[in-house]
Amino acid sequence: MSKVITSRKEDPARWYTDVVTRSELADYSPVKGCMVIRPLGYALWERIQGSLDARFKETGHQNAYFPLFIPESFLHREKAHVEGFSPELAVVTIGGGKELEERLIVRPTSETIIYSMFSKWIRSYRDLPLLLNQWANVVRWEMRTRLFLRTTEFLWQEGHTAHATEQEAEEETLRILDLYCDFVESEMALPVLRGIKSEQEKFAGALRTYCMEALMQDGRALQAGTSHNLGQNFSKVFDVKFQNREGGMEYVWQTSWGVSTRLIGAMVLGHGDDQGLILPPALAPTQVALVPIWKTEEEKSQVREAVAAIRNSLGGRVRLHADMREELSPGFKFNEWELKGVPLRLELGPRDVAQRQVTAVSRLDRKKQPVPWDGLENRVPELLASIQKGIYERALKFRDENIRPSGSYPEFKEQLESLGGFFEALWCGSRQCESMIKEETKATIRCIPLQGQDRRGPCLYCGSPAETRVYLARAY
Ligand SMILES: [Zn+2]
Ligand 1 mean position to 318 CA, how many Å? Predict the structure, then answer.
């Protein structure tokens, strides 16, 4: 079965597409630019949703739902916002067979429609903070499709909050950044660099955009999520005002933040190998695949009995699937569960039954070890925890080995080409240097780290005195 996947070394782009389609995470659709998320991909998304949703609720957010369509005039109220999104808008001009009086935009993001409602709902400081989240689909027109990474329609969550003070909005922006980073590191097992986006890379309409950036195995960065402090940019144009304690009127301070189905692409690129997906146990829809092995009828009945006992002892503790299909060989099943990224496989044959054990095989390193039936209900969760840790540590080691000092500009260009990864550099802060680097190397400033801004030296591009430390990389 591994033959159906092009090796990553040979062609990383082809490898990615092969893994996504052959593992049945997603498929191309008849609509150009749009993908179909298949049951395995959707089950993974549901686990991501479930975990994040619980975290949002723990921090006081509530879910709501707003319309798919946005009146065109709404988008034009915030100048930077409309300029940023115009090239990728889908516009509805006809409805019910008639030309519409006002054209409708299919939401690329929902700040404008949501804040038009906030202006109706927020009256006084008692209505604040207002902490909402929406799980939805959005549309941003794309010319080139890459499943999960770049599609015209994708699924995401967008948080939208309103606060009485600038400080509260800033705290919320950072709280969500922390929440995202913790989720991505502890559950997706991907280490991230966190920081602020440059003016050029920030969200259209934001005061500041905070982000987390992960490194993929091909040396390219992937933006895993963003949290924006919107200041009063939107509240002023949508007239979202509140009466403060002293009776005066003030505009609210706002934040918005989101992660999307792109996270699934990040897990494929960050952990997968030439056998297929490697899913971290915390999110894997199936954590353990139990594959029975038998030849004779007598063995079959013994093995089936043992399968039932193991199911009983592990049931409720781990997400286990016993693969009882009779028309397929054990070898075929092993390959299939490896392709689908199931973290742990338990093989159970007549010899295992005789010794009252199962043979456990980790997806991470494919090492085999016997596990006695006695204590299996504790041992399997332990093995899953060690796989989760192992996946993270491997990704962390790779990431850390691939953060390089930029050196001189020619050295940077050479290493970017030959090695990839993150490059730590000093930048003078000028938009021109940033643009020239992007134009000449296709690398962008991924983030300005929040800590360690005490170095001084020459700007990577122009050589003039610089004091902003940045991470550069080519990115998805
Ligand atoms: Zn410069």
Answer: 53
